[in-house]
Design brief:
By secondary structure, the chain is of the alpha/beta class. Helices cover 40% and strands 17% of the residues. Strand 6, helix 5 and strand 7 form a beta-alpha-beta unit.
């Protein structure tokens, strides 16, 4: 049994469901792999683990390995897990029909942590002709703190999670939770990345990709009620029926794809949005930005 160590900062993310299924089931074991998961705090802790060799693979947003390239480290994204933005735009007052321009002048709460939800919303607004500067943003507070403040009446919109949207709707503290996956384009949201040296262990990495490919395929073709329950892995307390419903909605919104390949057009657009907010100076050529071999071979039968 060969060992692979994976690190992540967001174990409790529902969008990681296929990976959780692969961990809890026999997907990796069938490939002769023991996959150990290490959870760290948000920020530079995860790339530090990958850099130091304490984990072999990092799982997180594609923005960080791209931002580090040519500056701090060379991390290579090689497999995509999540292909849509999983955040929800939680509205205190419903808009019928929803109009992006109606957000101008409103106060939007964005918790600290990974900047990707805000970067995605920033790019999405501009794609709809809305200037983000016309919106009042509240940043730099924790997500938990902003959630509680929104509950008691602060702000007009909360950029939050599926779980938060469901809870606020149930409490009648919000009137609508708009899934950004349902209205936004595909992007390589969460990827597995590694140092180039680790990716030279082709057979080991291919088996990892094949196991993950099978788990994703099962999530896409089978109802979650028929799959192994992985709720115990989540940080957030979530009932089985809520988890199953979230997975169904995410699947309908194409959160996961039949291919683990990082799509070139989606990556190009995502990088353009990174350039727009300043975390990239310029777009990286696709062939330099990612490794496409593992995902492509993982799709082959056998």
């Amino acid at each position: 049994m060969d060992r692979i160590r994976v690190g992540t900062a967001t174990t409790g993310a529902i969008e990681y469901y296929p990976f959780h299924l692969a961990l809890e089931g026999d997907y990796f074991k069938t490939e002769g792999l023991q996959v150990d998961l290490t959870t760290v705090s948000m920020g530079p802790a995860l790339p530090e683990l990958v850099r130091s060799g304490r984990v072999d693979i990092g799982l997180g947003g594609a923005w960080r390995p791209l931002m580090y390239r040519g500056r701090l480290d060379t991390f290579i994204p090689f497999v995509q897990l999540v292909g849509k933005c999983p955040a929800s735009l939680i509205l205190r007052r419903e808009m019928k029909p929803f109009d992006w321009s109606a957000l101008e002048g409103l106060t939007v709460l964005v918790g600290e942590g990974a900047p990707s939800p805000w970067m995605f919303l920033h790019g999405l607004l501009r794609s709809h002709g809305v200037e983000p500067g016309k919106i009042k943003w509240i940043h730099s507070l924790t997500g938990t703190e902003l959630f509680e403040l929104f509950r008691v009446g602060m702000g007009d919109v909360l950029l939050g999670s599926w779980v938060e949207g469901r809870q606020l709707l149930a409490e009648h503290k919000a009137s609508h939770a708009l899934s950004l996956a349902s209205v936004g384009p595909s992007v390589p949201w969460s990827v597995f990345y590694a140092m180039p040296k680790f990716l030279q262990q082709t057979d080991l990495v291919l088996r990892f990709g094949k196991a993950l490919q099978r788990a994703v395929a099962d999530v896409l073709r089978r109802d979650p009620i028929d799959l192994q329950y992985v709720g115990s892995i989540y940080v957030e307390e979530i009932e089985r029926h809520d988890l199953d419903q979230a997975v169904r909605e995410f699947r309908n919104d194409r959160m996961w794809d039949t291919s683990l390949q990082i799509d070139e057009a989606s990556l190009t657009m995502w990088q353009d949005w990174f350039v727009d907010v300043g975390i990239l100076a310029h777009r990286l050529p696709y062939a330099e930005a990612v490794d496409t071999t593992i995902a492509a071979v993982s799709q082959r039968p056998g």
